[in-house]
Every structure is written in structure tokens, then in C-alpha cells.
Amino acid sequence: QSCFICYKMGATITCCQTGCDRTFHLPCAPDGQCVTQYFGAYRSFCWEHSPQQKLQPRPSQDNTCAICLGTVEDIISYKTMGCPACQDARFHRQCIQRLALHAGIGFRCPCCLNQEPFMIEMLTMGIRLSKR
């Protein structure tokens, strides 16, 4: 199979959406904005069928990552994520992934400290957790 991201052969990950035949290499997934869920059935999605966060518009337009304090996009996207509990925290995907790997089972929103809905949402969006 040919990877739809790098176009090289040997792609073994297939989008789990019925009818989608896109395949990719696991290391190519971030470059193609693909989401792999590292829990349950370990499902993978191409950029077109990946899960999307459903967050309310923010009353404040503070476009700052809650982790690195850098600027984030105005809208929720593959690269910009938010907390489903407080609806106000925004962060870069790379920043929240780094935090998740360091925090392990104590992973929670860096702003409101919510844990369960936040962790479930991040797992669904493809953020990996360290089990240590």
C-alpha cells in the first residue's frame, strides 16, 4: 500500500471510516493531520474523518497556549485544542502531548484541573498517555 502522505510504499495504517481507503505510515500521521486513538480498539483516522472537538466560542479572545504561552490559532483545529470542561483553555497539540507524556495518569487540564472529561476528550483526539 502507498502512504497518502509521503507516497512511499509499505503503509499499514488504514482510516477506520467505512468506505475510506486512505492508508499511511504511523510516523507520517502527524504530518497528514491524522488521528490515532491509543485506547480501546486503537482506531486511526485520516485528516478528513478525524474526530473534531465541539467547543463553545470563547467570550475572551485570549489566543495564548495555556502551556507554552505562545500564540494559538483563533479556531479549534488539528494543531489547536481546547478543554471541554472549562471551555476556555487553549493549547498547541504538541504542548498538550508533551504534558500528557510527563503527567501520566495524573493528566488534567492545566487551567481548570479537570481530569476525567478532559482526559477522555484528549484520548479521543489522539493524545497518548504514559501509563507510568
Automatic annotation (TrEMBL):
RING-type domain sequence ranges: 65-112
Keywords, comma-separated and alphabetical: Ligase, Metal-binding, Zinc, Zinc-finger
Gene Ontology MF term list: ligase activity; zinc ion binding
InterPro entries membership: EPHD (IPR034732), PHD-type_Zinc_Finger (IPR051188), Znf_RING (IPR001841), Znf_RING/FYVE/PHD (IPR013083)
Segments traversing the membrane: none
A matching Pfam family: zf-HC5HC2H
Listed GO CC annotations: nucleus
Record domain PHD-type: where: 1-50
Secretion signal, residue range per the UniProt entry: none
Name by which UniProt lists this protein: G2E3 ligase
Organism: Illadopsis cleaveri
Gene giving rise to this polypeptide: G2e3_1
